[in-house]
Amino acid sequence: MPSLMRFVTVIAVLAAVGFASLFALATFVSPRTREMTVTIPAQRLKAAPAVAAAPNNPRTAGAEASSGGTPATR
Predict the structure, then answer these.
(1) How confident is the model at residue 9 (pLDDT cuts 50, 70, 90)?
(2) Are residues 18 and 10 in contact, defined by beta-carbon separation less than 8 angstroms?
(3) What region, left, alpha or beta, does residue 35 occupy, with left being phi > 0 and alpha being psi -120 to 50 degrees?
(4) CA distances from 60 to 10, 55, 57, 66 (A)
(5) Tally of CB atoms within 10 A around 63
(6) Distances in whole angstroms, Cα of residue 29 to Cα of each of 25, 32, 34
(7) pLDDT of 71 above 80
(8) 71: left (phi > 0), else alpha (psi -120 to 50), else beta?
(9) Does pTM top 0.90 for this prediction?
C-alpha cells in the first residue's frame, strides 16, 4: 500500500506543477497585438461560373417524376 500512496502522491505533484505552469503562463504572458495585411489575388475574388444541372438518368429513382412521364405502377 505505501507504494500506491507514493505513486498517487507523485502523480498529484506532477499534475499540480503542470496546472501551476499553465496558470502562470495564462496570467503573466500577454500576446502582442499588431496590424496584419494580407494580399488576395484578383482571381480569387471573381465569382465561380454557374454549373449546368446534370441530365436526368432514367435508371435512377425519381427520374419518371422529374421527366414528366407517368410513373410505372406495380
Answers:
(1) very high
(2) no
(3) beta
(4) 65, 11, 6, 11
(5) 13
(6) 5, 10, 16
(7) no
(8) beta
(9) no
- The amino acid that residue 48 corresponds to is A
Locate cell 507504494: which residue? 3
What residue type is assigned to position 65 of the chain?
A
pLDDT tens-place string over residues 18-69: 999 999 999 999 888 999 998 888 887 877 666 666 666 666 665 555 555 5
Q: Measured on CA atoms in the order 45, 49, 50, 56, is the torsion positive or negative? A: negative
Q: pLDDT digit string (tens) for 41-53?
A: 888 787 766 666 6
Q: Which three cell numbers stand for residue 31?
A: 500576446
